[in-house]
Amino acid sequence: MSRSWMRSHPWMTPVHAILRAGCRAHPHSSKKIEILFHLIIESVNQRIRMAYYKQAGYMTEAQMKKEGKNDTEMARQREMNYNIRLQHYAKTNSLQFLKMVEEWADAHNFDCENPPSNVSTMTMLYMLKLSRENGILSDTIIEFSRAELTLQERFPLFISPADVPFNEEKRNQHCVAALKPRVSKREKKAAAMLARAAGKVAAAEKRAVDKAAWDLAEQKGREEIEKKTAAARKAMGVRKNEANPVSIRQMISQWEMDRIVALYTSRMNA
Length: 270
Known about the structure:
This protein is mainly α. It is built from eleven helices and no strands. It folds into three domains: 47 residues, no CATH class; 99 residues, no CATH class; 102 residues, no CATH class. The chain is extended and about 70 Å long.
C-alpha cells in the first residue's frame, strides 16, 4: 500500500488497508472480506454526508445552555462547531466551504501582506489545509497561501500546519462536477433552438453526430492511455503477465481523470 494512496484516502485506517489488500491478493477466496470492505466504505461515506450538526463533537446553543457551560466554555465550543462545519463542507460542498472562507476573510479584513495573528492565524491555516486536502481553489485561498509564505519569511522556524500536498484528484473531480451540468444545459439549449428552427429530425441528427464524436474522442483517449501504459510498463520492466504496479495504476487513474476533464472542456468550447 503506497503512502501517496493512503494520503489521498485519509479515512483509510491500517485495518481498512489490510482488508483492501486482501481483496486484491485473493479475489476468489476473500469474497466476504471484499463485501466487508465495501460496507466499511459505505459507512464512511455516510458519516461524511451526515449533516454537520450531527457530527461528533458538535453542540447546539440549546445543548450548551442545558449543560450549564460558562462563557469561556461556550466560546471554545462555538469555535469547535465552526471547525466542524468547515471540515464538513470542505468534503461535501465546496461552494459552501468557499462561502465560509469569503465571509471569514471579509469579517477579518484579511490582508496577505499583514496576516492575522494568534487564533485568527490558526483559523486561516486550517482553512488552507482543508482546501489543499480537498482540492479546492479560489482567489482568497491563493491569498491565504501568500500569507503563509509571509509568515514563513517573517518567522524562519515557523512550520505551517497547512503544509500538505494539494489534492489534484479532488480538484479534477470538482472540475468535472462543475462542467457536466453546464455542458448539459448548453447542449439542451442548442438542441431546443435547432428543433424550433429546423424541426425535430434535424435535432435528432445533431444529437447523433454529437454522440458519435464523443464516442470517437473517448476511444482515442482510451487508446492513448493504453499506449502510455504500455510505455510505462516497458520502462519499469514489468513482464507481460504481471499486473500493473501501484505507481502505474495511479498514473492510469490520473490520465483517466485528465481525459474526462479534457472531453467536457472540449464540449463546452464547441
